[in-house]
């Protein structure tokens, strides 16, 4: 079946990711599986509309129009707005890198981040995606995910560092402890020299996000960090619930 114009345009936009933020026309065509002549025509249209922008070096990047539309998504606007003051409080209290993330199928989608002062290697960026199993926020989200999601994730346990947990039984035990203790930790599983701790963010009974911090060492002050994260996560959840009541969305 021939691809529609819409599917080809979406494929071109989907060619961009965290590792490919700028692409030349030939790379766009190759990564999207679009004939070069078709890519040339569609890229020109997308650029005129503002979905793409052309840099002086000839590369195309995501345009401001897409960024403006992205800000309208509920996961961006409502959750980020509710979480912002609590993220800043966490950062001020700890000076650690603070993350707010949601699950996008089998990946962590980072929707906000405040960078810490410590020289800790942090590879996540706002809008970037990482695997669930080697990240603190990912383990929280995986622990509270539907059973079929965990099953699929357990079949894709790739090794990122020498410390990444890739044994299904061991990861399942960690997820059980997350649900029992209410927080997750990692030790250099995503980046050497970086450890993380994370807690769930709830809206009512539903876990809607994960809140985490990245630090060089978890052996010091872990209880204090967990406590600070829980206070912030509770505040975010309370703000979300309050916003829903005001819009009349909460059950009566």
UniProtKB/TrEMBL annotation:
Keyword Ion transport found: no
Record-linked InterPro entries: GAF-like_dom_sf (IPR029016), HTH_MetabolicPath_Reg (IPR050707), Tscrpt_reg_IclR_C (IPR014757), Tscrpt_reg_IclR_N (IPR005471), WH-like_DNA-bd_sf (IPR036388), WH_DNA-bd_sf (IPR036390)
Keywords: DNA-binding, Transcription, Transcription regulation
Pfam families: HTH_IclR, IclR_C
SUPFAM superfamilies, per the entry: GAF domain-like, Winged helix' DNA-binding domain
Keyword Signal: no
The IclR-ED domain, residue ranges: 65-242
Single GO term (MF): DNA binding
Gene Ontology biological-process annotations: negative regulation of DNA-templated transcription
Record domain HTH iclR-type: where: 3-64
UniProt cross-references to PROSITE patterns, sorted A to Z: HTH_ICLR (PS51077), ICLR_ED (PS51078)
SMART domains per the UniProt record, alphabetical: HTH_ICLR
Domain of life: Bacteria
Annotated PANTHER family: HELIX-TURN-HELIX TRANSCRIPTIONAL REGULATOR, ICLR FAMILY, HTH-TYPE TRANSCRIPTIONAL REPRESSOR ALLR
Protein name according to UniProt: IclR family transcriptional regulator
Organism: Actinoplanes teichomyceticus
């Amino acid at each position: 079946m021939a691809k529609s114009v819409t599917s080809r345009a979406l494929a071109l936009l989907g060619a961009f990711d965290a590792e490919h933020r700028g692409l030349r026309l030939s790379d766009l065509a190759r990564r999207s599986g679009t004939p070069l002549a078709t890519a040339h025509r569609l890229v020109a249209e997308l650029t005129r509309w503002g979905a793409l922008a052309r840099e002086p070096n000839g590369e195309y990047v995501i345009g401001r129009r897409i960024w403006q539309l992205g800000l309208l998504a509920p996961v961006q606007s409502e959750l980020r707005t509710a979480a912002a003051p609590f993220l800043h409080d966490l950062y001020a209290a700890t000076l650690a890198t603070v993350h707010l993330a949601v699950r996008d199928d089998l990946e962590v989608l980072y929707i906000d981040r405040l960078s810490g002062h410590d020289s800790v290697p942090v590879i996540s960026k706002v809008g970037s995606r990482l695997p669930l199993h080697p990240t603190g926020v990912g383990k929280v989200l995986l622990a509270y995910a539907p059973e079929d999601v965990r099953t699929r994730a357990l079949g894709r346990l790739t090794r990122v560092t020498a410390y990444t947990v890739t044994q299904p039984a061991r990861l399942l035990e960690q997820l059980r402890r997350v649900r029992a203790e209410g927080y997750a930790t990692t030790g250099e599983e995503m980046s050497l020299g970086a450890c993380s701790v994370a807690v769930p963010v709830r809206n009512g009974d539903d876990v809607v996000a994960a809140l985490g911090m990245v630090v060089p060492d978890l052996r010091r002050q872990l209880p204090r960090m967990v406590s600070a994260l829980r206070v912030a996560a509770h505040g975010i959840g309370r703000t979300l619930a309050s916003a829903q009541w005001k819009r009349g969305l909460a059950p009566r």
